[in-house]
């Protein structure tokens, strides 16, 4: 398995996997599939273009993109010490083989190398048992629960807010 940063040339593979995640796991993500479906491929490529504060990692199995996650640093003078982890998703047929572990491990390793980034934050729906265990294993501590954070097909879903101190 290869883990590398995605760029504009990966836009269509990323688009397909991200859309699959939003469609199959609506409780896992704050974004919704219908809105994402309307995003032009150019805009997806733009988001993948290298920048100081944002990067997306992909996991490749035999050349096929099977897992993704995005790092986004806050940009405000008072919030630049924080960064967020978004969009952790592994294709169903690639699960249970350490793909997410490798992706998150690499994201954390890179985050530690960015000067001034002190903590990582994320939100995870309480329905996502595998993801919660993954974040436990990497040391993300729950610091709050947002009741009814999402409303998915008329059902409310609570989200845990978690942080990992890097320093
Ligand atoms: C969560 C997810 C990314 C895990 O991907 P994966 O590649 O299968 O995970 P890994 O094989 O690397 O396993 C990492 C850890 O996750 C946990 N885990 C994975 N699959 C699990 C399962 N079926 N049940 C419980 N815990 C599980 C375990 O703690 C595991 O570590 P361990 O093997 O040392 O016990 C994947 O299940 C997924 O895409 N889920 C839907 C989307 C989602 O919930 N994303 C999170 C958004 S915040």
Condensed summary:
With 167 residues, the protein is α+β, with helices and mostly antiparallel strands. Helix content is 31%, strand content 37%. A seven-stranded mixed β-sheet has the order 1-2-3-4-5-7-6, sandwiched between helices.
Count every helix, treating DSSP H or I runs of 4 or more residues as helices. 5
Question: How does CATH name the architecture?
Answer: 3-Layer(aba) Sandwich
The succession of helices and strands, N to C, reads: EHHHEEEHEHEE
Query: How many beta-strand runs?
Result: 7
Biggest beta sheet summary: 7 strands, mixed
Number of self-contained structural domains: 1
Q: Ligands in the structure?
A: coenzyme A
Report the sheet-strand fraction: 35-45%
Helix coverage percent: 25-40%
Pfam families: Acetyltransf_1 (PF00583)
Protein name: Acetyltransferase (GNAT) family protein
Domain N-acetyltransferase: 1-163
Organism: Deinococcus yavapaiensis KR-236
SSE map:
Layout: E1 2-5, H1 11-24, H2 33-37, H3 41-48, E2 54-61, E3 64-73, E4 82-90, H4 99-113, E5 119-125, H5 129-137, E6 141-152, E7 155-165
Helix pairs in contact: 1-3
Question: What structural keywords apply?
Answer:
167 residues, alpha+beta, Aminopeptidase, 7-stranded mixed beta sheet, globular, binds coenzyme A, transferase, Acetyltransferase (GNAT) family protein, GNAT_dom, N-acetyltransferase activity, Acyl_CoA_acyltransferase
């Amino acid at each position: 398995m290869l883990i590398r940063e995605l760029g504009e040339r990966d836009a269509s593979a990323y688009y397909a996997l991200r859309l699959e995640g939003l469609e199959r796991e609506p409780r896992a993500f704050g974004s919704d599939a219908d809105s994402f479906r309307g995003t032009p491929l150019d805009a997806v490529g733009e988001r993948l273009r290298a920048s100081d504060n944002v990067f997306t990692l992909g996991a490749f199995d035999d050349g096929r993109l099977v897992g993704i996650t995005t790092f986004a640093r806050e940009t405000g003078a008072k919030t630049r010490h924080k960064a967020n982890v978004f969009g952790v998703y592994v294709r169903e047929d690639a699960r249970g083989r350490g793909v997410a572990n490798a992706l998150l491990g690499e994201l954390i390793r890179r985050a530690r190398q960015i000067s001034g980034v002190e903590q990582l934050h994320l939100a995870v729906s309480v329905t996502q048992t595998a993801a919660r265990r993954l974040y436990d294993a990497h040391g993300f501590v729950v610091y709050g629960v947002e009741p009814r954070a999402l409303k998915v097909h008329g059902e409310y879903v609570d989200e845990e807010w978690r942080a990992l101190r890097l320093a």
